[in-house]
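wait is this the right file?? whatever heres the structure
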């Protein structure tokens, strides 16, 4: 079991082969900070080139289809991600749930397909500002996990959950450390209930939503935060490298 903070960059629909130099620069930062585990989820087109360009950074996909192959124009399956050199998949990101009308049940199918293909999985969850203002955030997020977490044999191994409040993604707004801590503790409770005490307490819970070099240390200090899922600030080594260094400084201070 890896207890290191897990810092994951989600490049979304950004990145061309010209970005390989950024990935190489990030890899050099990682080589100086072995106490932090770092991963990148570039667009599918860059999984193989980045895998070939870096030594230490893990590389994965932002999504996969639940089926291994078939008539699904434009989709990519989990075995294809593995074949391209990816070793994990993000499923259930709010931009997929909204833009591609993905249900919790579909997210579970994808997560289980990724595990079947031997990949690690990051299941995303998070509430809208409307749900939070109605005081229903925790119930909503636990409901998403209730229907979306993978349940197949060994599903908790190599699993992470990313809590990403939709209102914090790309907005510069972040929850307070107390709000993050409360939600992460509720998620931990759900994981223990789902997978049992031992397996459920080892799943890393990441925070995502406007993480940057300035706020990373504070957000990572919240209870039950085992890492971060970073969007915009993961695109350049200047900002992503600084987040990696902030996580490393916390580990080295312990
Ligand atoms: P952001 O995105 O860091 O740009 O807010 C996070 C995410 O959507 O994973």
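ok assuming it is, sequence goes like this
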């Amino acid at each position: 079991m890896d207890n290191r903070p897990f810092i994951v960059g989600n490049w979304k629909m950004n990145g061309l082969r010209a970005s390989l130099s950024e990935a190489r620069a990030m890899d050099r930062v990682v080589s100086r900070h072995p106490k932090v585990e770092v991963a990148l989820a570039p667009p599918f087109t860059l999984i193989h080139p980045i895998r070939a360009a870096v030594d230490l950074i893990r590389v994965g996909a932002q999504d996969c289809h639940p089926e291994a192959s078939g008539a699904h124009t434009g989709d990519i399956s989990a075995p294809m991600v593995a074949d391209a050199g990816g070793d994990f998949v993000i499923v259930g990101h709010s931009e997929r749930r909204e833009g591609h009308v993905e249900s919790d049940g579909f997210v579970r199918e994808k997560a289980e397909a990724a595990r079947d293909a031997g990949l690690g999985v990051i299941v995303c969850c998070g509430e809208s500002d409307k749900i939070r203002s109605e005081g229903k955030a925790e119930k909503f997020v636990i409901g998403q996990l209730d229907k979306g977490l993978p349940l197949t044999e060994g599903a908790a191994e190599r699993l992470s959950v990313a809590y990403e409040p939709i209102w914090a993604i790309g907005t510069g707004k972040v929850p307070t450390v107390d709000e993050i801590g409360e939600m992460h503790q509720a998620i931990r409770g759900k994981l223990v209930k789902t997978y049992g005490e031992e397996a459920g307490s080892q799943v890393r819970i990441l925070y995502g939503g406007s993480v940057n070099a300035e706020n990373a240390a504070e957000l990572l200090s919240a209870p039950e935060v085992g890492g971060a899922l970073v969007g915009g600030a993961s695109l350049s080594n200047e900002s992503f490298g600084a987040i990696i260094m902030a996580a490393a400084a916390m580990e080295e201070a312990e």
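Residues 10, 164, 169-170, 208-211, 229-233 surround 2-phosphoglycolic acid (CB under 6 Å). so i think its the right one actually
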